[in-house]
Design brief:
- The protein is globular.
- Helix 1 (about 10-20) runs antiparallel to helix 2 (about 50-70), helix 2 packs parallel to helix 4 (about 105-135) and helix 3 packs antiparallel against helix 4 (about 105-135).
- It has helices at about 10-20, 50-70, 75-95, 105-135; strands spanning about 35-40, 45-50.
- It is mainly α.
């Protein structure tokens, strides 16, 4: 199995759990609001970048990479789609069953995994159809 078959959004899922469970202490969800850094903007306002923001940034980057990966038509892509569905189900189950997962950050990770599953299959079908049309012209 190729490393390309690994759904990358699983890293956002693991990162969330590490931050909330390891750094959380008494209030695990408060770890998401812990600032990483604060920057003074030209407007005079302060922008605070939190652990939750970092998780969402990483999730968006990984979702982009997953969408690019779904444009390939290989056997590892099919495995990636199946594993992405498993990751989505695992994230959904944790969202519904684990108290610490009842946050907006985790919900957005859940939505990213859903978009990955739907877009992966949709883009895969479109690319395969295009490949069939190109092959028919020859």
């Amino acid at each position: 199995m190729s490393i390309r078959a690994l759904p990358l959004l699983v890293f956002a899922f693991i990162l969330y759990n590490l931050i909330v469970l390891v750094m959380g202490g008494e209030n695990p969800v408060a770890a998401l609001d812990s600032p990483i850094f604060t920057a003074r903007l030209l407007s005079g306002g302060d922008w605070t970048f939190t652990w939750g923001d970092l998780i969402l940034l990483i999730t968006l980057i990984l979702l982009f990479v997953e969408l690019v990966k779904s444009t390939f038509t290989t056997t590892s892509t099919l495995i990636d789609h199946a594993l992405s569905m498993i990751v989505f189900i695992a994230v959904l189950v944790e969202f519904l069953m684990v108290k610490q997962a009842a946050t907006s950050v985790f919900f957005l990770i859940l939505m990213a995994t859903l978009i990955d599953v739907i877009a992966g299959y949709t883009i895969g079908i479109r690319v395969a159809r295009r490949d069939l049309n190109i092959g028919a012209d020859q």
